[in-house]
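Q: A reviewer asked whether we had any structural model of the full assembly, not just the individual parts. We don't, so I'm hoping you can provide one. Inputs are below.
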Amino acid sequence: MIVLGIETSCDETGVGIVKDGKVVLANIVVSSLKIHSKYGGVIPEIASRLQLESVTGVYCAAIKAAKIKAEEIDLVAVTTGPGLPGSLLVGVSFAKALALSLGKPILSVNHVYSHIYANILCYRNIKLPCVALVVSGGHTSLFYVKDFFNIQVLGQTQDDACGEAFDKVAKIMGLGYPGGPLIEKLSRDGNKHKIKFSCSGTRGELDFSFSGIKTAVLYYLKDNPMKIKSRNANLAASFQESVVNVLIKKSLLACKRKNAKQLLIGGGVAANSCLRQKLISAAKDEGINCFFPSIGLCMDNAAMVSGLAYFLYKRGVRDSLYLNIQLNN
Ligand code: KG4
Ligand code: ZN
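A: Here is a predicted structure for the entire assembly that you could use as a starting point for your response.
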């Protein structure tokens, strides 16, 4: 079964073609990141206009890369939320037009859950149920995944998302946007023990809070104004270290609470090599098998949308052309 997925929840335009929920035939993503970087964050109106311009080209490139004809598509899948309304509407409108013109079914996919599914595309040995952590620019949540119909929220951020904290701290430090990769790169030259930061306490033991550490970085630079000029590697490394440590601590605690032996990580922050190395090693010490998608599948992409849609469709989930964007999930 060939599923064509469309992902336009934030600034990327992605079209992915996946066979039988596992074999990625094409995964084309274009991003308007360069244009947003001069504003220090995504401007929704610019993102959706550029998606409108690029979606047809990305679709054609995916069909070409997969070496299939459009008629061979069995199912059209699309991210319906959460995300930016204008951006989601571009993907949903394109998906409806495609499904209607091909006479094929359409299925709605949740963006956050598709980040978890990216792991299933990469590894054959994952068995549900498991615990999952999604860390992106818009989300930081721990889940108990019984299967992809039955996903229980164990904890989530009370304020900023983890990727958002990376982006804001990079902005405060004058590094640019997006902040995650820039902080990671600068951290390599820094001493992570130089400055003591900690993430604030939370109501629930599996919740997160990142706004306090962001403010702590801001005050550190106010108190030490010269440090902002010198691309402060120690500051970047110390910030990254505390964020990574809290993600590790809570993910392992969630596994303990649910007696889970498998942990799946997804979302843009999962590309962070410090998090990848430390969490895999810490999980191993606890007898937990920890999975990260390949770097390309951590970021927003549509192969994960196609993969999850296959899983749901095979289990009887159906939608109609009346499906719409969903902002509250
Ligand atoms: O999942 P994603 O591509 O888009 C959303 O759904 O939000 O995640 C984007 C986020 C951005 O905040 C970006 O700074 C962060 O992922 N990110 C990273 C790294 N690469 C991307 N954060 C830390 N380290 C990285 N290497
Ligand atoms: Zn995402």
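A: Points you may want to mention in the reply: The chain has a mean pLDDT of 95. The chain has two domains: 2-116+298-314, 124-295.
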